[in-house]
Amino acid sequence: MRIITHTIRIQTTKPVEIIDITPEVTTALVSSGLQQGQVTIISQHTTAFININEKEERLLEDMETWLKRLVPKDGNYLHNLNPIDGRHNAHSHLLGLFMNSSETIPFSDGKLLLGEWQSLFFVELDGARKERKVLVQISGI
């Protein structure tokens, strides 16, 4: 068994943004040369997450709208009284309670075993950010 680690760097442009990272993960898998195993994708941030869902333009817009409505940015949050990095981002952390920081996907014959309509997404909840990092760890043979 071999383990290969790759980092995807992402620049975000909006406060809430859903970015398809399936092509980058697929490229990392293909370049690994591995044929069978698992790929684990993890966001290295507490206000950005990984999600598997359908890539359809209007659905992605619905998701962004829903996230903004679920936990409004202008809520009365204690975290915002003394933010560590000067960002009033309590809403982003609270939205994270409903999300995963990582996903693990099996692969076979060098291909991700995602369903027909599934894509991998990086979900930014505290943008815009110059650089976000997603760790891709590929384990297999």
TrEMBL record:
Pfam family of the protein (one): YjbQ
Domain of life: Bacteria
Coiled-coil intervals, chain numbering: none
InterPro entries for this protein: UPF0047_YjbQ-like, YjbQ-like_sf
Gene3D superfamilies xrefs: YjbQ-like
Family under the similarity heading: Belongs to the UPF0047 family.
Protein name: Secondary thiamine-phosphate synthase enzyme
